[in-house]
């Protein structure tokens, strides 16, 4: 007769032991926690020792200060020597430098090459639109940046355009300054050219 390995051939005591071990795995017994009294007592002892060392160091330093102050007072009493008058401060120099008087009134000549205007007055265009409303909106945005502009209507081969222009500027440097001011507020794409 063949024994079934699933548990039929086991004895009752074997089955009970297997069931008990399964039950222990499911419901483990709680582990008792012990409070670490030894560690706590050791920490309290170390803390007391540290406090005692600090107090003894402080007492020794105060005693040393008392001894130092007592000895310094006694040495001051013993060695009081009449103080000699200190040497007076030396006299201030009486020199007078010439550059102190001449420098504020001095003019230095500088030779600058003559600047010639290259190309004449400059103009800057910041947009070209199909409707007057769009151009006026751009003009208002530029006005909020603190720069004055104009809307000009032009007719070309491809229809009517409304251009937003700034200027005329005598120097290109002035036009560049306004372009940088507009770029700081987010208006990009302005073009500068000679206006003839």
TrEMBL record:
Limits of the SPOR domain? 116-195
Q: Which InterPro entries match?
A: Cell_div_SPOR-domain (IPR052521), SPOR-like_dom (IPR007730), SPOR-like_sf (IPR036680)
Residue ranges with Basic residues bias: 1-10
Q: What is this protein called?
A: SPOR domain-containing protein
Q: Where is this region: Disordered?
A: 1-30, 64-92
Q: Where is the composition biased (Low complexity)?
A: 69-80
Xref: Gene3D superfamilies: Sporulation related repeat
């Amino acid at each position: 007769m063949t024994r079934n390995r699933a548990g039929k051939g086991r004895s009752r005591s074997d089955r009970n032991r297997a069931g008990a071990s399964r039950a222990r795995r499911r419901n483990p017994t709680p582990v008792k926690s012990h409070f670490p009294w030894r560690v706590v007592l050791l920490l309290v002892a170390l803390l007391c020792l540290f406090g005692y060392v600090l107090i003894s160091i402080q007492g020794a330093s105060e005693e040393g200060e008392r001894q130092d102050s007592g000895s310094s007072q006694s040495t001051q009493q013993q060695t009081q020597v009449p103080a000699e008058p200190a040497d007076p401060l030396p006299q201030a120099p009486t020199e007078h430098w010439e550059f102190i008087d001449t420098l504020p009134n001095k003019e230095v000549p500088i030779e600058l090459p003559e600047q010639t205007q290259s190309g004449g007055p400059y103009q800057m265009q910041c947009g070209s639109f199909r409707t007057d409303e769009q151009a006026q909106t751009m003009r208002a945005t530029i006005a909020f940046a603190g720069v004055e502009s104009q809307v000009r209507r032009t007719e070309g081969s491809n229809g009517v355009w409304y251009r937003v222009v700034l200027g005329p500027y005598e120097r290109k440097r002035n036009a560049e300054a306004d372009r940088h001011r507009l770029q700081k507020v987010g208006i990009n794409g302005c073009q500068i050219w000679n206006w003839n």
